[in-house]
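I'll show an entry:

:::
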Amino acid sequence: MTDDQPNSPQLYLITPVGAAASTVGPLLADVLDRFPVACLRIPGAGSEEDLGRLADLAREIAHARDVAVVIDDHVELARRHGLDGVHLTDGARSVRYARKELGADAIVGAFCGTSRHDGMNAAEAGADYVSFGPCRATALGHGDIAELDLFQWWSEMIEVPVVAEGALTPALIGQLAPISDFIALGGEIWAEDDPVEALGNLWR
């Protein structure tokens, strides 16, 4: 994952939580054919068998289009199914472990909620990117919001790429675009009747 253009974030797509591989396959192929996705992330919920099937399918579809694939937290599953790395949901805590297990070339990202301190620790531990969110009020999680000034500060002070995710709207994406390297979208589109159209409305 590289950020080639300053002030022009790349699209980071999160697959539907708990989706069956058979359902999500055609949708994923359609989205990846229409939009320039930089990275695809698989949420970690589900059985080992279901996640394995989804990992294989996502890898096949994404790698055919030169898109990297990561999965939440499951280091061994990422290795076994030939994924590009992991997205760690516990901030900086597992970054060194994941790097040791997966090697120097793997993608190791860290979700750090709204904590600048966690983000800095993850970056120092060797994370390839740090993710903050949610970006506006939502009933999910702790109720904290990753404010625009967190992304502004990070983009000015820290070289490690930053991902904005959670409860995003077109207006928020417009505000985050100059100060984020990646914009992560998932729940914002899959809940809609036409996810491709929904993504088109968000990603212009």
